[in-house]
Structure formats: C-alpha cells, structure tokens
Amino acid sequence: MTTFVVPTREEVVPANQAIFDNLNKALGFVPNLYATIAYSKNGLERFLAYQNAKTSLTNKEKEAVNLIVSQVNGCIYCQSAHLVLGKMNGFSDEQLADIRHGKSSDSKLHTLVALAADITKNRGNASETNVDAFFAAGYTNENLVDLILQVSDKTAMNYLHNLTKIPVDFPIAPAI
Asked: Cys-Cys link to 137, which of 31, 65, 108, 114 (CB 3.0-4.6 A)?
C-alpha cells in the first residue's frame, strides 16, 4: 500500500501555507491530519470552515460526539486528539472512558452519545428508541441536524486517518 507522508509547509500551495501559519499561531503546531488534508489545494480551507461553523451543540457535546464517533470508527488519531480536547473541555478521565464505551453518567449527554454511536454504527439508520430518547432528553430538530453534521465531520477525519495511517502527534489513546 502507498505510504503517506505528512507534507511540509513548503510542499503545499500558498493558500495552505497561510493556513499552516495560522494553525501554528493558534495551536503552536500543525496537526498531522490537517497537514495531510493540505494535499488538496482546497480541502483544508473547506474542511476547517465546515469544522468551525456555528452549531447548536456545546463544545462539550461536540467533544463527546467526536470521541464516540472516533471510537466506533476505530480511528486512533482522532481518539487521541479528542481525549486531549475532552480534558480541555472539562471531562475527567473516567468520563472520557465512559464516552468511549458509549455511555455517560449525565443522562442528557448519554442520549447524545448513544445516538451518535448508533448513527455511526448503522450509517444513519439509528434505532427509534435512541432517537426518541434524544428528543425526550430535551434535544431539538436543530440539535439532530447538528449532530448528524458533527458525525459527518468526524467520520471524514476518521476515514482519512484510517486510510493514510499518518503519525499521531498527540499522546496515543489507551486501549479500552
């Protein structure tokens, strides 16, 4: 199989070089998976705009979705990244482990995690039970649309890493 190498700043088009510079300023580095998207002259800008778009989900809810989707899709890169980001958004190690197992002690967050896992496992054909529980927990149609968009965002990144196997540049997620 082809070996993918993370492109350097000098190996990408000028528009992506500018994005690399902005990522370096904001994060202190360019995550390898973002750099890999820069193989596409338009992909990185398009993906970051999609990823950073406004949503009805809180940052904590987004991180829970990102983590369970990455777990279901078996993406070690994204699991690793979202364990770090989950902690930055206030989750404990125990809460993050629960999310990776598809659950949460917070009943509302549990319904979100369960539905996100179900959507991912079943390619959008989630059980009526999980959908009904999601709405019974107080989520809205807007939240459902935003959940699906979040699942699609993370699934794209999961697939990119699962295919390219570029090096993980975060502490590696432990097996659960």
From this structure: 108
- Report d(CA 46, CA 33) in Å as an integer: 14
The pair of three-digit structure tokens given for residue 21, joined into one six-digit string: 């510079």
* 147 token code pair: 């959940």
Q: Per the structure block, which two tokens stand in for 149? A: 């968009």
Separation CA 149–CA 155 (nearest Å): 10
Token representation of residue 155: 């699934």
- Three-state secondary-structure class, residue 30: coil
Q: What distance in Å separates the CA atoms of residue 159 and residue 119, rounded to the nearest whole number?
A: 16
With cut-offs at 50, 70 and 90, classify the pLDDT of residue 105: very high
Please say whether the dihedral angle defined by the alpha carbons of residues 159, 164, 169 and 173, taken in this order, is positive or negative.
Answer: positive
Pick the closest to residue 67 from 98, 35, 90, 44 (CA basis). 98
- Report whether pLDDT(90) > 90: yes
Summarize the chain as % helix, strand, coil (round to 5): 65, 0, 35
